[in-house]
Amino acid sequence: MSKKINIVKSSVVPVNIENIDTDQIIPARFLKATSREGFGKNLFRDWRYANDDEQQPKADFPLNNPAYKGKILVAAKNFGCGSSREHAAWAIKDYGFDVVVSSFFADIFKNNALNNFLLPVQVSESFLQQIFAAVKIDPNTELEVNLEEQSITITSTGATEKFDISNYKKTCLLNGYDDIDYLLSLRADIEAFEATRI
Amino acid sequence: MGKTLFEKIWDKHIVKQIDGGPSVIYIDKHFIHEVTSPQAFQGLEKRGLKVFRPQQVVATADHNVPTLNQHLPIKDELSRNQVQKLIENCAKHDIELYGLGHPFQGIVHVIGPELGITQPGMTIVCGDSHTSTHGAFGSIAFGIGTSEVEMVMATQCLMQSKPKLMRINVEGTLNKGVVSKDIILYIISLISASGATGYFVEYAGSAIRSLSMEARMTICNMSIEMGARGGMIAPDDITFDYIKGRLFSPGAAQWDRKMEYWKTLYSDADAVFDKEINIKAADIEPMITYGTNPGMGVGVNGHIPAENEISETERPSFLKSLNYMSLQPGSFIKGKKIDYVFIGSCTNGRIEDLRMVASFVKGKKKASDVEVWVVPGSKQVEKQARQEGIDKIFEEAGFQLRQPGCSACLGMNEDKIPAGKYCISTSNRNFEGRQGPSARTLLASPLTAAAAAITGQVVDVRELI
């Protein structure tokens, strides 16, 4: 897993579907591994292939369209709803994405993504539609996501928008820190807290 | 200004507040299972750590286990390996495991309450989004990812931002044939599958207060299906009576002291919520879903929205969903032929659910072309059902009573609904492929599912009782 994230400039893979749940991102029957690696090959499995033998890719699904490639996944609103499976974030990251753009993210998915250095960028509905429109005209349309500046720009049109992220998480992503390192540094506080409880 | 129920518990669990960032929250109970824990144990080992507070962790095997012949080795190699890893990890880290064959084994959100582990005022987490179930006891309970499972194992704490707070008041008396599953399906259909994202929800009002603990659990269980971080209900005498005398409930020596705290757990009259929604219980009909998210539901006599009732931006996703379900916009769902019935899951796999189904089907037989699976939520539920003779009623009706696990709710084991078939299910998700590749799920209450099992189609159960 590549840690640290700051500027990602890339073409995109657009999946213009609302309410993409984590069962679509990674179906339950592929959750049986005991390590974090290798989930990318089953990303959007049932939308990519007609059967489990992988012999029949569905041509109309954007991941199977050679025109679309890049490190940024763009999806319609309420992305990542449903199951808490972190395997969804692992699959997206393992497939090669560093950023997911949507107009709305489910809470648990957002946390899971941030814990895996996969940056969820929430944009306005109108900006999201601008991205989809630009990519429809030119599949090579690039986005530039700048974490330090908290900005996202469609490079061809110059259209840009700011996005939110907590200062704490921003620092973690920019520096490659994770929550566990931080929590472990608080062990003495945690033990002191425990001692005060009934 | 007073405090909400959520704030009273949250504030008591803050170990440290980070300026402009999340809070470090102490976790009282941590449930784990075979699917979302192995990578967390692996992470701990990489860091050379042991589980920090193993006595606050409880494990079970539920997600991928077979529901037939549980005494035999698991056939599927990957599932067997995951369950084996859980056994090894729990042994290595001194964690109590209620694994296959143990009399307490079952779905994690069924066993926590029935063993008395789940108690008011606690913070409870699990690597499973339906952890919100435990909120029915007036606790803060929510699902987490595997990195967070690792954090709790390492430090018994989590970094969490305080969510916004919503209260949903359901007032009045429920109609005949309308049960708690219908209440929550109605709420989700009203506010959508993302309507509570960013919020923690408290359910209140006379209709909620009148419910049993198990019925309350069904409601809190599905909070995540409208995007909520969790759901909760203030504890009352119904809660305290349920907890008293269970295996891990506070004993006589501690009981009064615990009660003193538990009785402070309610939202103050002047507490402020970021959002409030008021619902009349009388408006709720038996519910059924027609689409591929739990917000796509209607009263059983209602019709699927017509195309022009859906906004232009939402229309492509709406049509994609109906295409998957092979249902027509604007059509009625009543009378729809079904192929399978699944009664079970952390939503509706408790003894009261099985009793509800049994009392309806007693003396009746299932429709000949329908297959019916009843999967109890735990070994204890299964045992209780047999003691009460519910197994005989199911046998006579042609229902299969299986062994405990998550089963066809997510189809991780072999309990999958075949492609293209319609299943009326008491579970919590109707996502594409959830119950098996290309399977079509209609979510409903145990009563509506039982009626479908007997008639072979979607019916208004009120016409049959």
The count of helical stretches of chain A stands at 8
SS strand fraction of chain A: 15-25%
N→C terminal distance of chain B: 48 Å
User: Strand fraction band of chain B?
Assistant: 15-25%
**Poorly predicted sequence stretches spanning 5 or more consecutive residues of chain A:** none
In terms of quaternary structure, the protein is heterodimer
- Major β-sheet of chain A, in short? 7 strands, mixed
Question: Average pLDDT of chain A, to the nearest integer?
Answer: 95
Total helices of chain B: the number is 16
Give the rounded overall mean pLDDT of chain B.
97
**Outline of chain A, from the CA principal axes?**
globular
Question: What is the number of strand segments of chain B?
Answer: 19
Task: Name the poorly predicted regions of chain B.
Answer: none
Global morphology of chain B = globular
Radius of gyration of chain A: 18 Å
SS-based class of chain B? alpha/beta
| N-end to C-end Cα span of chain A | 41 Å
Give a brief outline of the structure.
The complex is a heterodimer of chains A (198) and B (465). Chain A is of the alpha/beta class and 198 residues long. Chain A is 31% helix and 17% strand.
Task: Supply database-style keywords.
heterodimer; A: 198 residues; alpha/beta; 7-stranded mixed sheet; globular; B: 465 residues; 5-stranded parallel sheet; 16 helices; 31% helix
